Amino acid sequence: MMAATAQKVNKQNSFGLVYDGAITENVKGKVNIHPVKYKLNGIDIVANVYTPANYDPLKKYPAIVIAHPNGGVKEQAAGLYAQRLAEAGYITIAADAAYQGGSGGEPRHTDKPFFRIEDIHGMADFITQYKGVDTSRLGVLGICGGGGYTLKAAQSDKRFKAVATLSMFNSGEVRRNGFLNSGLKTIEDRLKQATNARTQEAAGGKIIYAGVASITDEEIAETTTDLYREGYEYYYRTHAHPNSTFLYTMSSLFDLMTWDANTNMDLINQPLLMMAGSKADTKYMTDEAFPNAINAKNKELFVIDGATHIQTYWKPEYVLQAVNKLVSFYQTNL
Questions:
Q1: Distances (CA, A) of 145 to 68, 112, 120, 216, 256
Q2: How much is the pTM?
Q3: Is the dihedral of CA 231, 236, 240, 246 positive or negative?
Q4: Tens-place pLDDT, residues 58-68
Q5: Burial zone of 89 (CB within 10 Å; 0-12 exposed, 13-18 middle, 19+ buried)
Q6: How many Å apart are CA 3 and CA 72, to the nearest integer?
Q7: Could you say which of 3.40.50.300, 1.50.10.10, 3.40.50.1820, 1.10.940.10 is the CATH number of the domain covering 2-333?
Q8: Within a 10 A sphere around the Cβ of 322, how many other Cβ atoms?
Q9: Can you tell me the distance from the alpha carbon of 17 to that of 188, in angstroms, rounded to the nearest whole number?
Q10: Beta pairing, strands 271-277 & 160-166
Q11: Could you tell me if 137 and 113 are in contact, meaning their C-beta atoms sit under 8 angstroms apart?
C-alpha cells in the first residue's frame, strides 16, 4: 500500500511531495522550490530550499531551518511548513536527516541524537550561505522528534535567533521510558537488546531493526494511541513516501536511551515558541520541557485547540493556526 500511494503521488508531482497543496512546478511570481545537495561530515545531504514569490537574490530575507519528524522526510510535514512559511516571505530549508530518507549514511535508518542535532546545524551552515539570506534573521522550527532535537541544537547554536517547536517529541524519553511511560519496567532489557545489536553490528553481522516495517489496516484500527494509529495512517497510507520509514536501528537505542531533550533547557536564551495540540497524547512532553526554559525570551506555549499530534502535520485548519502563530512569532523576534 505504501509504495503504491507514493508512486501515485510522484506521478502527480515532479518534486515527489506528498502533502496537500504541494508545489508541483516552479512558476514565476510564486514560491519556488530548489532541490540542493551538500556534504555534512562527509555524508551527502539532500534538501529542498523554498524561496518566496518574486525572490530576488540581491535582496535580504529572513530564513527558517525546519527539522522533520522521526521517520519523516522533507516531502511531508516539514515541506508543508517550509512552503507555508515561504509564502509568508521566508527562505526556508528542509533536509532529510543523515542516514535517513534520500540522504547518505550507513547503516540506513540510524536515528541517533548527535546526528539529528548535527543535521540542524548543517542546515544552518548551508542556508546562511544561500544568496539573499539575512544571517542575522535566522529562525528554526522543529516538528515532532525534530522538535526535541531543535531544543538541543538551539542551546549551543546562537545563529538561531528564534526557536519554535510543533508537537515536540522527546525521543530519548520515549525510547527510554516508553510512550506515556509504558516501558519503565523493561528499560534494562531494552538496553541489553541495544548492546547486543551494537555488538553484532561491530562484528559485521546483520543490522537489527526496531519499529514497524509495514502494517495492515486491521493493525492500524486496533492501535490504541492516537499518535501511533494516526501516525501509521499518515506515514503508510495518506502521506506515504518511499523514503519515509518507521524503522530505526536497534543499536540507535544505545544512544537514544541515555539522551533527553529536556536537559540544559536553561541554555536557550533566544525567544521560544512551543506549540502542541490540545488533544495530543504527546503534549506532556511539551508541558515538561517548557517550564525549564527559564532564560528564554518572549517565551510562549501555544495550544492548538482540538488537534491531535499527527493532525498538526496536515489538517488545514490546524496547520493554518500553527503557521499564523509562527509568522507572528518570527516577525516579532527575527
A1: 7, 11, 12, 24, 12
A2: 0.96
A3: positive
A4: 999 999 999 99
A5: middle
A6: 15
A7: 3.40.50.1820
A8: 25
A9: 40
A10: parallel
A11: no
CA torsion 156→120→104→166, rounded to 10°? 130
Angle at CA of residue 124, ends 307 and 85, nearest 5°: 40
Cα–Cα distance measured from residue 149 to residue 142, given in angstroms and rounded to the nearest whole number: 7
pLDDT at 14: 81
φ, ψ of residue 297 to 5 degrees: the values are: -90, 150
Cell matching residue 51: 524561496
Please count the other Cβ atoms lying within 10 Å of the Cβ belonging to residue 176: 20
Backbone angles phi and psi of 180, in degrees to 5: 55, 35
pLDDT attached to residue 105: 97
DSSP 28-62: TTS-EEEEEEEEETTEEEEEEEEE-TT--TTS-EE
Residues 6+ apart with CB under 8 A from 134: 60, 61, 62, 63
- How far apart are alpha carbons 303 and 324 in whole angstroms? 13
- For 102-230, strand residue ranges (E) read 133-143, 160-166, 209-212
Q: Which helix (H) or strand (E) holds 314?
A: helix 311-314
Instruction: Mark the ranges of the chain whose per-residue pLDDT is less than 50.
Output: 1-9
- Which residue, chain included where needed, has cell 506515556? 180
Helix, strand, coil tally for the chain in percent (to 5) = 40, 20, 35
How far apart, in whole angstroms, are the C-alpha atoms of residue 134 and residue 297? 21
> What pLDDT shows up at residue 11?
53
